[in-house]
Amino acid sequence: MTKVLIAEDNAVNRELLRELLEARGYTVTEACDGQEALRMIEEIHPDMLLLDIGMPVLDGFAVARKIRENPSLAALPILAITAYAMQGDRENVLNSGFDGYLSKPVNARALADELERLLGKRKDRTHLPIK
To answer: What is the DSSP letter of 76?
Structure first.
């Protein structure tokens, strides 16, 4: 089963994401802040991280940076789920180490499409021949 970690400080948003993901057969784990997300990544080794930007303790940008700096975690697909939806925000997020971007409120179809796209990319990465 595909494991997805949701890192989101808003309980209602976490619940909505969890319901959308579980309905599609994903195993879901939740973190309430960025520091907890980093700890949980090390513990459960998720296949995908859904990461809010504006969180306490460590924001999404700091979490993404720490993941990308760690060679054992660097291939983890990170999808930003954020209220940052002003002009230029998407590009800023994608240039900060995220693999995808969705603005809130999350559209269920767009979420499914992004998960499929990003998990497909990860599968491609893990089956590359060794040179």
So the answer is: -
Give me the amino acid identity at 10. Answer: N
CA max distance for the chain: 46
Tokens found for residue 128: 């590359």
Q: What is the pLDDT along the chain (131 residues), one digit of tens a residue?
A: 899 999 999 999 999 999 999 999 999 999 999 999 999 999 999 999 999 999 989 999 999 999 999 999 999 999 999 887 778 888 899 999 999 999 999 999 999 999 999 998 655 444 344 33
Rounded CA-CA distance 110/124 in Å is 21
What the chain holds in terms of domains, given with CATH numbers, is 3-126 (3.40.50.2300)
Dihedral angle, C-alpha 126, 111, 55, 87, nearest 10 °? 110
What are the residues facing 100 on neighbouring strands? 79
